[in-house]
Amino acid sequence: MLKKFIVAFTILASCASLFAAKGDKAEAAYYHTKAISVAKANLGVPYRWGGISPSGFDCSGLVKYSYGKAGITLNRTAAQMYYGNGYRPSNLQIGDLLFYAPNKASAPTHVAIYIGYGKMVMASSSKGVIITNTSNPYWHSRYIGVKRI
Predict the structure, then answer these.
(1) 100: burial class by Cβ within 10 Å (0-12, 13-18, 19+)?
(2) What residue intervals traverse the membrane (predicted)?
(3) Long-range contacts made by residues 18-27, C-beta under 8 angstroms, separation at least 24?
(4) Long-range contacts made by residues 135-139, C-beta under 8 angstroms, separation at least 24?
(5) Of 19, 53, 92, 115, which is most buried by a Cβ count within 10 Å?
(6) CATH number at residue 26
């Protein structure tokens, strides 16, 4: 009888962890989708150095604000986001943070949100909040890494 109980308990525990993992993935999909939706809702908002609101955003301000509205707290600057918790995946997924620097050896000075299909949403100093291609020659040459939160 005890063996049957242990086997049943082990099976139930395994199933519970499976459901928790699926729930975690669903939750991640929700906050990525929500953050992208918030960022896209701010298309056209002007660039403002240090800006963290819809009256004006800098790049990290837009990312922090968008994920904040989705319930995720991020650090304030691109460099802090890059060096904080998380990991660098080998393939891009929607919601990943893309980091850029003036040269490969320096700390990141720019961050954007990957929205799929080779596109990212970001706050550009010249155009405000925009969607652009990840293959954009200016940004592509400055790309230093990605982070999944």
Answers:
(1) buried
(2) none
(3) none
(4) 139/100, 139/110, 139/112
(5) 115
(6) 3.90.1720.10
